[in-house]
Amino acid sequence: MTATLGARPAPGKGRARARHRLAVLGFMAPAIIGFVLFFGYPLVATVVFSFTKYDLINAPEFTGFDNYTFMFKDTLFTKAIQNTLWFVVVLTIARTVFALGVASVIARLKSGVGLIRTLCYLPSLAPPVAATLVFFMVLRPNGGPVASVLDWFGLQSPLWFSDPAWAKPGITAIMLWISGDLMIIILAAILDVPQEQYEAAELDGAGPIRRWWHVTLPTISPVLLFGIVNSVILALQLFTQAVVAGSAGSGSADSTGSTKYLGFPDNSTLTFPVYLYTQGFRYFDMGYAAAMATVLFIISFAVTIVLVQRMRKGSAAEEGGPGA
User: Strands (DSSP E) along 110-229, which ranges?
Assistant: First the structure.
């Protein structure tokens, strides 16, 4: 007997499916509730407050797009954007190249690989505040280890976190020192390259450099793309290292580590998140801070979308092959 098209499922099966869906929903309920309370609601509230004048004391006052239009007139906002773009460009390139270089060297080692890999990864586990303070002591122009070595060669040490020209390179050095997580990811990708490709390239007369350029790099390109976008997002959200470096460089931090000289020296460490924090929790201009947070979220979200699209295109090209 042929089943009728569009026939309804048996009542027993329908109830079983309903019970199954309720069971799945019950198990997912804690995650859904947590997502709504700790991500969804704050995100919506931030967007709403970005159209208001709000100081945490008085009731929010709707001001339309005033907070967004004021951004183009705020000179410190422009300075924060310039500093953040500097980190996006320089830190992204330096972090990716540094992690790739270290991973390539470790991949060619024959002995002691586990120990060296662990030593290179350990700095990434250090708390950001502690890592920044360690670098501040190492780069200290008066009596620091780096200054002592430079003096031995007859060179003068830069002022680093007390000089606007050297403060951002100093923070970049800190971020390179703690980039062991990206190094491990790239190292895993390099070790996953099929040996047959290296052997085929070697039979064709390719040397080590050409094998690295024509075999290793194209194979790990999706991982490098991930590292680039990850570094861009990291630079966009750079906060702790900039605050601690500015506080230590100014010499005005109190026992709690706070200082009134955020962005020291000469606003060279005033990144976008630091200025957002200043507006929200120092001047209590929560409406303007919410508008800045919304802009930062949009930029980070756009970069993430680009990452996903590029990774999908790369995966489709690899699956399709040359003739795809």
Answer: none
**Residue 321 scores a pLDDT above 50:** no
The phi, psi pair for 4, rounded to 5°, reads -75, 135
Query: Which of 293, 277, 301, 298 lies closest to 50 in space, CA to CA?
Result: 293
CB 65, CB 288: distance < 8 Å: no
Cα(96)–Cα(234) distance, integer angstroms: 12
Residue type for position 252: S
Q: Is the peptide bond before 128 cis (omega within 30 degrees of 0)?
A: no
CA distance 200 to 146: 46
Given a cut of 80, whether residue 257 has pLDDT beyond it is no
Q: Cβ contacts of residue 206 below 8 Å, gap of 6+?
A: 214, 215
**Residues 69-107: tens digit of each pLDDT:** 999 899 999 999 999 999 999 999 999 999 999 999 999
Give the pLDDT band (50/70/90) at residue 324. Answer: very low
Q: Which long-range contacts (CB under 8 A, 24 or more apart) does 207-216 make?
A: 212/104, 216/104, 216/190
What is the rounded CA–CA span in Å between residue 300 and residue 233? 6
Long-range contact list for 164-167, CB < 8 A, 24+ apart?
164/265, 164/266, 164/267, 164/268, 165/268, 167/245, 167/246, 167/249, 167/265, 167/268, 167/269
Nearest CA among 268, 255, 81 for reference residue 162: 268
Q: Are 156 and 150 in contact (CB under 8 A)?
A: yes
Do the bridges between strand 52-53 and strand 61-62 make them parallel or antiparallel, or are there none, so unpaired?
Answer: antiparallel
Rounded Cα gap, residues 294 and 301, in angstroms: 10
